[in-house]
Amino acid sequence: xxxxxxxxLESAPEASRPxxxxxxxxxxxxxxxxxxxxxxxxxLKGYMTLSGIFSESGLTPGEQQVVLLxxxxxxxxxxxxxAHSMAATGAGVDQEIIEAIRTNETLKDHKLDVLVTLTxxxxxxxxxxxxxxxxxxxxxxxxxxxxxxVVLGIAVKTMTHYVNHMAETPLDEAFEKFKLRVK
Length: 183
Fold this sequence. Notes:
This protein is an all-alpha fold. The protein contains 9 helices and no strands. It has helices at residues 17-27, 32-37, 41-54, 61-74, 78-90, 95-102, 110-124, 131-139, 144-167. Helix 3 runs antiparallel to helix 9 (144-167), helix 5 (78-90) packs antiparallel against helix 6 and helix 7 (110-124) packs across helix 9. The two termini are 30 Å apart.
């Protein structure tokens, strides 16, 4: 199969261009995942819209990045793991926390640890969680609405994970420092 095209502002379908321009303005470059998604303007619009809505959730920017990184690790998406390691750093998440998520270790911050645990359990169980799965999350200070915010974060990442897996999206130079190193 031919590789998926890395679109730019010239080659992208007209309906994708405003989203690529917004990414260029926000990040200073157009991440490769968006360049690939540009092939399907509805997907790109959906991803960008849901990402924006997730950023308005009740979770802090750091917690949002923890969800996105944990989902990326659970779904073995190396592209997103690198991107969200960088974004988590930018959101002020402690490097020890980021590394613990990346290596599937217990986090020193109990509240973030239960956030990671719930995110991974939700992915592994495909949403079939019990009260016993959710109770530690609530006891740690999160709300039932936050359970739904985790669902939203997972939905956002599922879109990019599936595309990255199919397209074998090349890692952007900006994320190279955060590339997962397989031991």
